[in-house]
Amino acid sequence: MTQHSTEQTHGRHTRHVQRMRRIVVVGAGVAGLAAARELLRLAPGAEVVVLERDARVGGLIETESTQDGFLVEHGPDSLLTWKPLNMQVVRELELSAALVSGTGVPRATFVAQGSELVPMPDGLLGGIPSAAMPLFRSPLLSVGAKLRMTAEPFMPRKTTSDDESVASFVSRRFGREVLTRLVDPLVSGIYGAPAERLSAKASIPQLVELERAHGSIAWGMRKTRGQRTARKTDDPLVVSLAGGMSTLTDTLAATLGPRVRLQAEVTKIEHKQGGGFRLQVSGAHLDTDALIVASPAHVAAVLLADIDAELAHALSGIVHGPLNAISMAFHKRDVAHPMQGTGFIVPSNQERFTTACSWMSQKWPGRAPQDRVLLRSFVQAEGATDADLVQLALHDLRELMGIEAAPEWTRIKRRARGLPRYEVGHGQRAIAMRERVAAHGPLAMAGNVWNGVGIPDCMQSGMLAAAEVLRALDARG
Ligand SMILES: Cc1cc2nc3c(=O)[nH]c(=O)nc-3n(C[C@H](O)[C@H](O)[C@H](O)COP(=O)(O)OP(=O)(O)OC[C@H]3O[C@@H](n4cnc5c(N)ncnc54)[C@H](O)[C@@H]3O)c2cc1C
Fold it and tell me: Quick check: CB of 467 below 6 Å from ligand 1?
C-alpha cells in the first residue's frame, strides 16, 4: 500500500487518536521505527512509545566505525534502488546526498568452482536467468544445461495455485543445473537454508507471478521490460550510505526523539481490563491502548504466549537460520587476487564452510583506508567456536584468493537466529497468523517475517501495521 492510499483509508482515525491514545511499538529495528514514524504521520496527536531492548536502535542494521579507519557492516550493506520505498524514505529523511553507489570496480560477483573464482555471468536476476547470451558464454553451466535453459518458454505452466519450493520452481522452469550452480548458492547464503526448503511464492514472488501471468519467465520478462526499465539504465541497482546503514535507522530514530526508549526490554504482554494491553518492561508496567510488536518472530512468540497460545505456537514454528559474519582487515599487499568485483558466493556442492564473501572495500567507498582491504565472509559450521569460524574463513580465502597472511583484525557477528526462512506454505501461514492477531483488537505485527526480509519490505510491514492498529482503535471508538 502506498503512503497516499494509507492516508486516504485512515484519515478518519487521526481524529480519535488525537485524543492522546497511547500506542506502543516493541522493537526499534527498521520495521518498528518505520511503524512509529507512520503512526505519527497518520495520527500526529497520538502518544507513540518505542521500546527497544538494546542500548542502540537498528536491530539487524548495525554499522561500526573502527579506530583505524574502517567502516564495518555487521548486518545489511545495501539498498535496492528499484524498491520505491527505499528511495522514498531516503528522500524524506534527506539522506539522498549520503548515498554511495560504488568504487569504480566492476560490480561482478564470482562463483567458487574448485579453487577458482569464476565470474558470474551477466543476465541473472537473483540467480535466475533473464538474458540468454551472457549465460551461454559462461563456463559455469554445462552445454546440456544451456540447452535446457533455452527450453524455458516451452515448459508447461504450473496449473495449480498451491505453493512449491524454490528448488522445484527453478528446476521445473530452467533445469537442475541452474538451480544447483546459480540459484541455490544465492538463496542459501541469504536464508541459511537450501532452496528445497524455501517457499517460491514467498521468496521469489515476482518470478512466480511472471509464470502465472505469461506462462514463462523469459516471455514475461520480455513483455514487462518496459515497466522494469522505466528507471534510467545508468542508475545503480544497489546503493549504500556513506556513513553506513545505521545512518538510516539513526535518522529514522532521530525523527522520533524521546519517544524511543532504549534498554527497555518487554518481557510480557497481557490484555488489560477494559481494553488495550499491559506490558512488563524492565520490571515495571506500561499500559497501552494499542500495540505493534516489531520484535523478531521468535521473541514475539514468547511475548504473546499469554494472549494467544496458538498464535505463539505458530510464530515459534518460523525457523530463523544461523548467520555468522566474519569481517577481516588485510593489508592490500597481502591479497593476491585482483578483486575486480564485489565478492563471491559458494555453491552448496563445493564442500566449503564459507557460503559467501563480500569484498566490502571494493563494493563501497570509505570502508577501509587506501592501503587496506575489508572482507566479510559468511561461514556456516555447526558447533564452531569463534576461533574455528575465523580459521574456516581464512582457509577458504587462502585457497580461493591466495591470502596467506593473517588478518590485522577480525570482528565476528554470530547470530544463532539470523533471518526467518520462508518455508513452503509461508504465505498462507502468515495470512492465518495475521487474522489471529487482528482478532485481538488494536494489535499488529511488523518485521521481516511478514512482507519479505529486505529493508523496504520491513519498513512497509511497519507502515501497514501502523494503519491496522489505527483502524482497530477507530473501530473500538
Ligand atoms: C547479514 C545481513 C545482511 C543483510 N543484507 C541486507 C541488504 O543488503 N539489504 C536489505 O534490504 N536487507 C538486508 N538484510 C535484511 C534486513 O537487514 C532485515 O530483514 C531487517 O533489518 C530486519 O528488520 P526488523 O525491524 O524486522 O527486525 P530487527 O532488525 O531484528 O529488529 C527487531 C528489534 O527488536 C528488538 N527486540 C527484540 N526483543 C525485544 C524485546 N523483548 N523488547 C524490546 N525490543 C526487543 C531488537 O533488539 C531489535 O532492535 C540483511 C540481514 C542480515 C542479517
Answer: no
Over residues 105-149, the pLDDT tens digits come to 998 889 898 999 998 876 665 556 656 666 667 777 888 988 888
Return the bridge partners of 416, or none: none
| Nearest-angstrom CA–CA distance, 295 and 297 | 6
Which protein residue's CA is at the shortest distance from atom 38 of ligand 1?
295
Which residue's CA is the nearest one to ligand 1's atom 13? 76
- What's the rounded Cα separation, in Å, for the pair 146 and 329? 39
- DSSP class of residue 156 equals P
Dihedral over Cα of 439, 442, 443, 444: its sign:
positive
pTM of the model: 0.90
Ligand 1 mean position, distance from CA 74 (Å): 11
Phi, psi of 286 (to 5 degrees): -140, 120
- Among 264, 277, 347, residue whose Cα is nearest residue 306: 277
Separation of CA 214 and ligand 1 centre (Å): 35
Which domains are seen in the chain, by residue range? 3-59+247-319+421-476 (3.50.50.60), 63-105+321-415 (3.90.660.20), 125-228 (1.10.3110.10)
CA-nearest residue, atom 17 of ligand 1: 76
Residue-wise pLDDT for 358-412, tens only, equals: 999 999 999 999 999 999 999 989 899 999 999 999 999 999 999 999 999 999 9
Do the beta carbons of residue 141 and residue 123 sit within 8 Å? no
Burial of 105 (0-12, 13-18, 19+ CB in 10 A): middle
